[in-house]
Fold these 2 entries.
Entry 1:
Amino acid sequence: MKDFVIQGKVVRRELYLLLGCLVAAELVNTAAILHWGRPVLELLTQLGYVVVLALLFYIVLLLVRGLVWIIYKIFKIK
Amino acid sequence: MNEKEQMDLGRRKFCLDLGRMTGGLALLSAAPWLKACTDEKVTATQGETARIGMVGTGSRGRYHIHNLLALPHARVTALCDIYPPNLEAAQALCPGARAYTDYRRLLDDPEVDGVVISTPLGLHADMTLAALSAGKHVFCEKAMALTMEQCKEVYDAYQAGDRALYYCMQRMYDPKYIEGVQRIKDGLIGDVVGMRCHWFRNADWRRPVPSPELERLINWRLYQEFSGGLMTELATHQLEVCNWVAGRLPSEAVGMGDIVYWKDGREVYDSVNVTYRFSDGRKIAYESLISNKYNGMEDQILGKGGTVDLTKGVYYLEEDTEISGMRRLMDSIRQGVFAAVPTAGPSWRPEYRNEYVPHPLVQGSVSVNGGQSMVAADHDGSDLVMSAFCISCISGEKAENVVEEAYGSTLLCLLGNQAMAEGRTVRFPEEYKIPYMKF
Ligand SMILES: NC(=O)c1ccc[n+]([C@@H]2O[C@H](COP(=O)([O-])OP(=O)(O)OC[C@H]3O[C@@H](n4cnc5c(N)ncnc54)[C@H](O)[C@@H]3O)[C@@H](O)[C@H]2O)c1
């Protein structure tokens, strides 16, 4: 059986992406806070929602990247 | 803790802690009957005991005995019932109490200051009148009486005398209702535009009968000679709350009642829908059905800005500023996604109920009665009414507005029954209006 080797730089890239998603989700939270005039404390109290949203962003990103990769492979074979 | 302190603590459990409630002392103006169970009243009667005689020791009577046994300022001295098994069960709870089978003998007993009447509705009026004229203070189960004439007779006798009279309308003493009504009056949900109350059960209301001649004594709820059916048994409580919230009574009623499922020889409806209309057009939609319990029991007060469900002790706001920004964002995305559903050409918007966020009316735990028990829920206010009654037995003071509230709600139940029986809109009869009532 062949071993899969996940390189350190791949892990680092994914972590950066996840962090980016977290920042984007917290930005959405900030926009919602500003829009509905909610207390700033919600930046912290709504972290649960923020994490879920970040994961959602990450999954969407994963799907998009997968799609791009498939399209790239198809064209390369041709 | 010494014995005196223990007794003090015991008493305090049975007075309303107004200080802990948002409305504080202001609650006393919206619910003046609470004056009988304040801390001061409890302290003023310290060291004294009300001697109580029980008339009717069936399921509700024995529930009251349990509450009385927990009260430091009460002692059950006499018991009366015509059905031996129920009398014996009560004697087992109160071994020192004298037992009677004729309530008039109990009323002659000088060791009785106050009488608790928990008998079938058809007997309430005669027993209450006899007890008042015997000089006893009276605590009677709801509803007030079986007919409007009887209600008026009892009301007049009470007004003319100096004895206290209580009705067990426990919602009036339930903290979540008290707080809820006060907050509605303070504008929590804006203008009250309507009320929706219902009580659904899936049970036949029957009790097992050991011998056929006992049918009417045991299953009295099913026969018109003793009972006004779902309206007097269930709706009384809920209509009282509506009157309390509105600060007035509806002036007319229209409704339909039927025996839909339990066609077992009963004489009262097992399905009722009654609409009451206030003079300004607002309505109470009342519904009760005992062959499906999906909707349970709810007392909903509908306001332009929100809804209060007093049964659960929660409120919902139409524009909920208490919801976090993230939550509102997600709600609006969801509403956007599901807003337009194309079906067969033109699009339509399914108006499902929004997912409102419940906010509690009272901090801390509240007891919520699912409405399925025929006897009672724990700590639903019944213990407080009983405590207030015992304090009145000691102090001799009448309770404010309790009889008036019971009179109003009982008359509305009877009006609903009349509207259903006659199949027409009936107006609140002039001859039964009392000065307390506003329309
Ligand atoms: N406030 C509430 O939430 C609530 C709840 C349940 C019942 N109730 C009310 O309590 C009352 C009693 O209901 P219940 O469920 O206990 O009924 P029940 O049938 O269990 O008890 C009634 C008792 O009265 C006795 N009785 C009948 N005729 C009598 C007479 N002439 N003298 C003495 N005793 C007599 C019966 O033998 C029986 O023991 C009813 O008015 C009912 O509406 C109120």
Entry 2:
Amino acid sequence: MADLFPPLVTAQIDDKPKVDEKVDYSNLPCPVPYEELHREAYMSLKPDTFEGLRFDFTKGLNQKFGLCHSVMMGPTEVPSQSPDTVIKIPTAHYEFGANYIDPKLMLVGRVMTDGRQSARVRADLTDKLMVKANAQLANEPHMSQAMFNFDYMGSDYRAQLQFGNNALVGANYIQSVTPRLSLGGEVFWVGVPRKSGIGYAARYETDKMVASGQVASTGLMAMNYVQKVSDKVSLATDFMYNYFSREAVASVGYDYMLRQSRVRGKIDSNGVASALLEERLSMGLNFLMSAELDHKKKDYKFGFGLTVG
Amino acid sequence: MDSTLSLKPRGKGKGSKGAPSSNDKSKYQLLKEWSNWSLKKAKVATHYGFIPLIIIVGMNSDPNPHLFQLLSPV
């Protein structure tokens, strides 16, 4: 009988601090970067499905430096006149890449056999200031794109300035308002075609769920909700609405992180169902299977691949 | 290129009246042309030099990997 009482008393003492905890508004956590606002939702709902064969081999020479070779064979889509038909051309290419990943500096470069190159640089100039650059270069003139970002991380806010080609200038800012809610906004101006836009975003997260929303003057409105059912399973749903063209898309997806594999799947209101399976066959050897069924356009894509290293 | 060639004789024909304004315009155009030229050179340099740059930075990081490790497929 005496043994029953002590556990009840300790349980009450543990609950009280959680309820009486006052929000310390001068000590809020730093929010998620503005472009990662919808990170959890897009991890479940936009897995990178592919079509054909994919083989990636990554060789690490060093803790920080590695080379990677990848072969991709499969049909690639070519934009067609009408939105109903899909034109595919079978292609095969080899891509060579080099990565250098350091806590302060990250350099990632990839070059393909047709001359297309992608380069990504991320450098921490100081503790709070970070520079990022992202470029896709091609041999044909006027087909290259580049974007430079300067990020400043404050104690409970983040600010970013962007410069891109075609005279694109943008800035965004996100601030933690409470320990769980963060609000942000962005402005951008494009030179060609002359367009400017403004957008607002909000994100609310707890241990079990993340909800975020974004509105932009380009007509985009997106809302998504992710529920972490357990540490292995998370479910997500997303709603995107364009209020100029009056088109809405809703999707529901799941993400199962099991010990040896990871399965992600989603179904869409456009009649698209897709899934991606990554299975770890042994240490360093991963097997990938991807499927995307577009019932409206009657376009079925299946892919398989192997990742080594 | 063609448009600037056709404009130049007309500018000279106008005489000294239009000279100060054409000097200012040419400064701005010089700046634009210089920035276009430098961007083109930067694009070519990045296109050919970025991956060798990563390899050089990586080979000089410690522990230094050997050239043989870079080239062998294992």
